[in-house]
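Appendix B. Extra example for self-study. Work through it before the problem class; the solution is given directly after the inputs so you can check yourself.
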Amino acid sequence: MPTMLATLLADTAALPAGGEDAFSRFVRLLTVFLLAMWVGFEVITKVPQRLHTPLTSGSNAISGVTAVGALVATASLASTAGTVLGFLATTLAMINVVGGFVVTARMLQMFNPKKK
Amino acid sequence: MTSHAWINLAYLAASMLFIVAFKQMSGPRTAVRGNAIGAAGMAIAILAACFDPKVTGAVAAEGAWPLILIGVAAAIGGSIGATMALRYPMTGMPQMVALLNGFGGAASALVAGAELASTIASSRGETPDPAAIASLAPWSQFAIATALTGLIGGVTLFGSLVAFGKLEELKQFKKAWTDPRRHWINATLAVALVGLLIAVCVKPDQALFFWLLVAVGSVLGCTLTLPIGGADMPVVICLLNSYSGLAAAAAGFVIDNSVLVIAGSLVGASGLILTAIMCDAMNRSLVGVLFGGLGTTAVADSDEVYAGKIKSAGAEEIAMILEGADRVVIVPGYGLAVAQAQHAVRELSDVLEARGCQVEYAIHPVAGRMPGHMNVLLAEADVPYEKLREMDDINPAFAETDVAIVIGANDVVNPSARTDPSSPIAGMPILDVDKARTVVVVKRSLSPGFAGIPNPLFAADNTLMYFADGKKAILDLTTAIQSS
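Solution. Structure tokens for the complete assembly:
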């Protein structure tokens, strides 16, 4: 089921961006949002309780994806305020990304003692 | 294909990798790969962002400056993140996760703020950008999404900081804030927020409204988290996790970026599911956790429950019982984390297993301060994954258990949840340790758990109380068994 949804999601996300009006652009993103939520529900209900802490910290790292927006906001140098705020955002988002993935890896390593 | 299409394709690949990463989280071995796949997806997304037309345009105009700027920011953030992740003790995982959640939320709010500042700047000046002017029209997608990102980001950051303070047990946060006026304060803040949300949507070109919205959202984040007590922390952590995802998704609507929307909503969904699981495990509604606080019953009850029925025992006596046991189940709670007793517990199980006894661990879903907290601690002490049993899985086995050892857990083993319909925890699923032949409760005193109610388990005929600090108690017990 998640695979099917993922394909549908891929098709929707890849629609051309050019020539859309504002409203259809919104509808496109809203579609992506709702489908991704659904995929999320499908996939995450299968994670066992024992792995809930790594799941929390791992998903936490993924929420640092906002780094993408932060990078563009900083490096486009569109305004002084935008660059300064973007710089701060990039720093915070990278703490979240790197901290989240590293701590999850550290935890998962403990669940697999043979790999120590 | 244009470079724009290539970038979108890279974002798409990153999104798919995120989904696969979540899917791989279903087992401890595949989860290692899942985490690496997630990190790879993130690397692809971040690299692709460096080729965004806005960035390449700035590089063409200004030289390498923009890239140096983001390189410095990424290096600072990355090294702080890596240091925190490697240094923080495993017992402090809930705090660490809370803090990272907060940073994620703050980053999203700042992205919205930065975009707003830049868009306002380019809509003015000598050659106004028509796209920027369109973005700043009342009730545009940009305006609504910016408002929501600022709001959710502010709530997430300050909610997480308060949660961090509580989990770190800082003095200022020791006592839950239970002022009855808090509901009025929250209601006033909520009204102010709705007003400011509308103001930002109607007048997106006034950045002041946006920052006011972030500020009021931040205050609300504090006032919502301050009244919440320790045992409800798992719910708060999950909820904040969900918020940090939703903030990222909202930021995706601000900058029209599907990878932010997809990754953000995956995290949002994950946090919501965990929140629901945690609430179920306490038989409480989310609204009850956030606004209710537990009703406290008369503390005088405890004398009646315990009077003359408490049997206490020392290490030697309990060691003798354990020597005759074939099957032992250890039930850890938050007290195990406080006493840092996970390694001691592991040694005790080693000694028992060497004598041919079967040892397993029963983990309640809300034991500890975040989902799966006990599992991480015990895994740190090299307890094999297979021995950590979930509640529904192990409950039927308690009847065939010789000794159940409860360490630092209280409410999650309180039989009144099953037997007393008027109890504040009535209906909460518990571990049925009282069905074991002998129950040993390691506890410092008879003080009540988070729910503030007496525990009839302590007074049961088959229960022995072992009054001591968790770690010392277990070490003494291990020595007593070894020396016999």
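Self-check: Chain B touches chain A through 130 residues (CB under 8 Å). If your reasoning did not lead you there, revisit section 3.
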